[in-house]
Write a structure and sequence with these properties.
The chain has about 625 residues and is an alpha+beta fold. It has 3 domains: about 375 residues, no CATH class; about 90 residues; about 140 residues, no CATH class.
Length: about 625
């Protein structure tokens, strides 16, 4: 047991060191930016949920005395390391081998999706830790059943819901296992003492959400009664509107594509070897202990079924608990080699550990976000020259970018005053008049300009803000010395973005000395040196990975997404790795990088995605005469 604990500690520290070295240094867009913002607020609404996650995050902010973004990223790295250490113990328990446990922990630590989530502020590293810990407690209880061990399991499982409500997916497997493993039969579990124990633990876990419930009565429009408050709380905390529209709502016509996506996702984590070993491990576990085999299989099946039917833009992260079960089953297969050769089990475990190391070496450049300052650069450009003395910013942004702006304006540049354009349209004339009186500009983002112009037209004219430069992509390319190495990737853009084809064609002509053809597939990439015919062109309907050489420099172009379902990829939709340097994170839309002979990025550019630069607009002097009371009829 001491050897297992030492092994778990070693893997936990190694995993943390890996995540710490690739940690995102600041804030991000999307849910990550939202978490990094909310952790600094005194109140957490039911919609925000995750009370335990935020409690731990606030502790990290206080302990590190760092900005909330970095502190929450660090918390994920710590939680991810602990989760991997716990997985070592679970895998060793199932396999009966410490070496197999180490292999299981390391394989999960370097799996693509989990690694990417353990370097940013997200809830999934902590969720994996709770899955592993509850599973370990349950296995220990089944080996030597005591009321204290059962109480520990009940309590930790209840606390898991304070981090993520998807813990409910563990309930069918855990319930079935407890019932079949109970000493004296399943009826003993309904003894008053055991039922009371379960209820007390459930209530203790539920009290974490009292913070969220209390917030409702501190908002400007509090519930009229406790019943109304509880209804609002349940609707928001369970995301009932999302759940009704997205759970089990993958169209039947796309089931084949979903299966292909799952197989791609599984190979992205482990390659084809580990899933095959997991099948063998399940068979071995079935022979050794059918209760344990059913426990792991039902856990796997429940989480796969949920993720498979969850029609959301980042469904890949919901496969994470099932990936954990895959590595546990793969670890359980390793002792079988001991039946063939005396030291076969140890050799196979060593090979599995080496395989994990090879995969870590392969994916390290792609998953290294330690120099990823893209969100801050986008926000700095959007808010350049804006503070509460000279301008206010009105926006209509993609929700992921809006979350990044929330953090940036709260934690980094609190002097930036901003609001959603749609929130002020009803009193926009008065707003324009008052700000003009104190010589303060009203600055609009691109879509906010459209909202404003549709509502007021020439009554409140809008002009381009010449202070913000947004050169065409072709001009960015022309500024590069001839012969510079480059890669240009074009992926189907997000629904709310459109690729400017004339601009892209002009950029291609500038890039290639006149060649302007690019495959029209979902994934397209072109690479070479500027001013010459491209050395590499590929188009594909499915993700691909290619290793090429550009002017003597080894370059890997990797597409790491499934575009028919993936609309959110917090690690990007692909990567360009030049001489093992992370030259470019590929996004949907247009992504461009030019790099030197050492693989160092010289110039990056994005178009038609969340990292693309935005033009800004200024509200000009209003026309004389009476203003309308609000937006034109038919506008929001």
């Amino acid at each position: 047991m001491n050897a297992r604990r030492a092994a778990a500690g070693f893997v936990a520290v190694a995993a943390f060191a890996l995540y710490r070295s690739t940690l995102l240094p600041g804030f991000d867009f999307g849910d990550t930016g939202s978490f990094q913002t909310i952790v600094g607020f005194p109140l957490i609404t039911p919609r925000d949920a995750y009370p335990l996650y935020f409690a731990i995050g606030r502790a990290f902010v206080r302990l590190t005395h760092a900005d909330p973004a970095w502190a929450l990223n660090l918390a994920s790295a710590v939680e991810g390391g602990i989760a991997c250490g716990l997985i070592v113990l679970v895998a060793a328990e199932l396999a009966g081998s410490t070496a197999a446990g180490i292999a299981g922990g390391m394989l999960f630590a370097v799996s693509y999706t989990f690694w990417s989530q353990a370097t940013i502020a997200e809830v999934y590293a902590l969720h994996a830790g709770f899955v592993a810990l509850t599973l370990l407690l349950l296995l220990h209880w089944s080996a030597r059943p005591t009321a204290a061990k059962l109480a520990a399991f009940f309590l930790v499982f209840a606390l898991a819901f304070g981090n993520h409500l998807s813990s409910v997916l563990l309930l069918p497997a855990y319930t079935a296992f407890v019932l079949v493993a109970a000493p004296g039969g399943w009826r003993t579990l309904f003894a008053p003492r055991i039922v009371a124990l379960a209820v007390i633990c459930a209530v203790l876990g539920a009290t974490l959400y009292v913070i969220n419930l209390r917030t409702l009565w501190l908002l400007p429009d509090p519930p009229r009664s406790l019943f109304d408050g509880l209804q609002t709380f349940w609707f928001d905390v369970t995301k009932a509107d999302w759940r009704d529209a997205m759970v089990l709502h993958v169209p039947l016509s796309m089931l084949h594509d979903r299966l292909a996506m799952y197989w791609f996702d599984l190979r992205q984590q482990f390659g084809p070897i580990v899933p095959a070993a997991a099948v063998v491990g399940l068979a071995r576990l079935w022979i050794a202990d059918r209760r344990r085999a059913l426990l792991i299989f039902v856990l796997y099946a429940a989480n796969v079924a949920f993720a498979f039917g969850y029609n959301v833009g980042d469904s890949h992260v919901f496969y994470l608990p099932s990936h954990l079960m895959v590595v546990l089953l793969a670890a359980a297969s390793l002792p079988l080699a001991g039946l063939v050769a005396r030291r076969g089990a140890g050799v196979c475990a060593a090979i599995a550990i080496l395989y994990a190391g090879v995969r870590a070496h392969r994916d390290f450049p792609a998953l290294d976000r330690s120099d990823d300052w893209r969100p801050e650069r986008v926000m700095a450009a959007m808010t350049s020259g804006i503070d509460d003395r000279n301008a206010i910013l009105l926006t209509d942004l993609n929700w992921q970018v809006a979350n990044g702006l929330s953090y940036y304006a709260n934690a980094i540049r609190p002097e930036v005053v901003w609001s959603r354009a749609l929130d002020v349209l009803l009193y926009a004339p008065a707003l324009a008049s008052d700000n003009r009186a104190i010589e303060r500009d009203i600055v609009l983002t691109e879509r906010a300009r459209d909202d404003w112009s549709e509502a007021f037209g020439p009554l409140l004219p809008v002009d381009r803000d010449a202070r913000v430069s947004m050169p065409p992509l072709a001009d960015v390319i022309r500024a590069l010395p001839r012969g510079t190495r480059y890669a240009l990737c074009v992926l189907t853009p997000p629904r709310d973005y459109t690729i400017d084809r004339p601009e892209l064609d002009e950029a291609l002509r500038s890039l290639t000395g006149g060649f302007a053809e690019l495959p029209s597939e979902d994934y397209a990439a072109i690479a070479g040196v500027t001013g010459q015919t491209p050395e590499f062109i590929v188009g594909s309907a499915v993700p691909f990975s290619r290793s090429i050489t550009i002017a003597g420099l080894p370059v890997d172009i990797r597409m790491e997404s499934w575009l028919s379902f993936d609309t959110i990829r917090r690690m990007g939709f692909g990567h360009v790795i030049a001489s093992r340097r992370h030259a470019l994170i590929v996004e949907r839309g247009v992504s461009f990088v030019a790099f030197d002979g050492g693989g160092q990025a010289l110039q990056t550019a994005y178009r038609a995605n969340i990292f693309a630069p935005q033009a800004r607009y200024l509200v000009g002097r209003p026309l004389q005469g009476p203003f309308p009371a609000g937006p034109r009829a038919g506008t929001p």
